[in-house]
Write a structure and sequence with these properties.
The protein is 33% helix and 18% strand. The protein is an alpha+beta fold. Strands 1-2-4-3 form a four-stranded antiparallel beta sheet, covered by helices on one side. The two termini are 14 Å apart. This is Putative pterin-4-alpha-carbinolamine dehydratase.
């Protein structure tokens, strides 16, 4: 279990600076299957599944995590895949919350 999975998100309504790319790159070591989109900046990962049912089950699990943490991703859902993208919109960049939720989603993999 990574350190990030043990944390909980903290409310972020703006008024704080987004993390630097250096800080983001350091945290990427804890979520190596994700990609850092530096131009956003944002985190994203594509998950692939055998069928639509598995895809939607995964999306529902993400919804549970997002509501529990009160931090919500952008999702692109297709028949056999789901692209998950995190960025803290209130600050226009990345926060710890994005990395915490990405790590919790990684824990869903079987």
């Amino acid at each position: 279990m990574t350190e990030l999975r043990q944390k909980s998100c903290r409310p972020c309504e703006g008024g704080v600076k987004p993390m630097s790319l250096t800080q983001a790159r350091e945290l990427m070591t804890q979520i190596p299957k994700w990609t850092l989109e530096e131009t956003g900046p944002a985190l994203f990962r594509t998950f692939r599944f055998a069928n639509f049912y598995e895809t939607m089950s995964f999306v529902n699990a993400i919804a549970y995590i997002a509501n529990r943490e009160d931090h919500h991703p952008d999702l692109r859902v297709g028949y056999k895949e789901c692209v998950v993208r995190y960025q803290t919109h209130a600050i226009g960049g990345l926060s710890d919350n994005d990395f915490i939720c990405a790590a919790k989603i990684d824990a869903l993999e079987i």
